[in-house]
């Protein structure tokens, strides 16, 4: 059964792993654009992008430059650290994501019943957590499952803080991808 599940997963991968270009971007450029669209302010950097792509910093910078040349991404000075730059998706980049080849798979997942979607989410999350331990790697995920998130207060007085960056987080921040995520054990 495990092998059958793997075969299904592998066959679904052709929506995000492919040869050549789709709508003018390679699979890695799509991956980078998708990441930058959903990443939090600490993770929109060339270093975090490299870590997400499993690429060298120089390869990630080349991918970012290709997206920049197409007007999908711009480089801006970081509000957190003036010596660093952040990679921000442009309005055109946001619009371009409507052509993302992975949207075909997203639509199939969205068509599942809420309960099925939730079980799939939790099951894949557990599988990935096991892989993180086995491969001693970090993967990007959202704050709500991170050991560095501190929550206080309730209702309108609810506050979120990141212990790693020592910064306050908005509720929206806690739903964005972070390359520095560390799962709760
Ligand atoms: S709480 Fe974790 S996931 Fe959220 S910003 Fe901090 S390190 Fe990243």
TrEMBL record:
<dbReference type="InterPro" id="IPR039422">
    <property type="entry name" value="MarR/SlyA-like"/>
</dbReference>
<dbReference type="GO" id="GO:0006950">
    <property type="term" value="P:response to stress"/>
</dbReference>
<protein>
    <submittedName>
        <fullName>Transcriptional regulator</fullName>
    </submittedName>
</protein>
<dbReference type="InterPro" id="IPR000835">
    <property type="entry name" value="HTH_MarR-typ"/>
</dbReference>
<dbReference type="GO" id="GO:0003700">
    <property type="term" value="F:DNA-binding transcription factor activity"/>
</dbReference>
<dbReference type="Pfam" id="PF12802">
    <property type="entry name" value="MarR_2"/>
</dbReference>
<feature type="domain" description="HTH marR-type">
    <location>
        <begin position="1"/>
        <end position="129"/>
    </location>
</feature>
<dbReference type="InterPro" id="IPR036388">
    <property type="entry name" value="WH-like_DNA-bd_sf"/>
</dbReference>
<dbReference type="InterPro" id="IPR036390">
    <property type="entry name" value="WH_DNA-bd_sf"/>
</dbReference>
């Amino acid at each position: 059964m495990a092998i059958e599940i793997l075969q299904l997963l592998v066959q679904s991968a052709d929506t995000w792993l492919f040869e050549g270009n789709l709508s003018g971007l390679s699979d890695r450029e799509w991956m980078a654009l998708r990441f930058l669209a959903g990443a939090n302010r600490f993770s929109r950097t060339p270093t975090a992008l490299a870590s997400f792509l499993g690429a060298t910093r120089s390869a990630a910078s080349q991918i970012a430059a290709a997206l920049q040349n197409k007007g999908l991404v711009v480089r801006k000075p970081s509000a957190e650290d003036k010596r660093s730059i952040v990679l921000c998706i442009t309005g055109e980049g946001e619009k371009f994501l409507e052509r993302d080849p992975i949207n075909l798979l997203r639509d199939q997942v969205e068509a599942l019943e809420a309960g099925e979607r939730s079980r799939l989410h939790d099951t894949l999350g557990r599988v990935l957590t096991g892989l993180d331990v086995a491969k001693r790697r970090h993967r990007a995920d959202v704050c709500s499952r991170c050991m560095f998130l501190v929550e206080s207060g309730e209702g309108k007085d609810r506050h979120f803080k990141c212990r790693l960056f020592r910064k306050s987080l908005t509720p929206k921040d806690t739903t964005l991808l972070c390359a520095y995520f560390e799962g709760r054990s």
